[in-house]
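Q: What does the assembled structure look like for these inputs?
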Amino acid sequence: MRRRDFMMTIAGGLAVSELAGLCSAAPDQSPPTAQHKEPQMYTLTKLPYAFDALEPYIDARTVEIHHTKHQQTYVDKVNAAIKDYPQLQGLPINDLIADLDRVPEAIRTTVRNNGGGVANHELYFAMMRPGKQENRPIGKLAAAIDSQFGGFDQFQQKFSAAAVAQFGSGWGWLSLDKQGKLAIETTPGHDTPVMFGRKPVLVVDVWEHAYYLKHQWRRADSIADWWHLINWDFAERNFAG
Ligand code: MN3
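A:
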């Protein structure tokens, strides 16, 4: 056998054996058909930072309780609500709550409250990062805020005032409608702009559990601190992505 033919045989042999490996692996990856299929349930998303990473603006104990107790409770309750409804399992959380009319009436309020709780907390925690003294929007979002609200300072004032004025528990939002217009809004409970066909760009939790260890009754102070924590890269992706 000439050297060239030998090399081709080696190369061909490798290719065939690799292919055989892939083919033999394939059947193992297909789901078993005769066995019980595990329902796909929601899980507590990991925080992208340590509990103390938001100090001094939000204290470590508040972040820990908020995430591991409050958010976990919403995860557990929405899972319990959809346990007997396979058609609702495995949906991204925003898909579950975006169309509450398709959720059976028996569990609709529970899904609204706790599914909203899961979606809003996932977004809230993901949208923060270790604080900066000077922390301002970037890119296309910064430009849109300037043109729609007359500048960041005016926007910040309006947003804070709305979030402070939300009566009782709820959320403050910057949302985007289908026409591409930004709006400041607040929602009670765990309602979200997603339920009304709008996309969240920015969110702050104004439930007392979000701030009462450090700020007690001073919601306005907690919101003033929150501005230092906004991950504007994340908000920019929400807006322009
Ligand atoms: Mn909360």
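Strands lie at 170-176, 182-188, 199-205.
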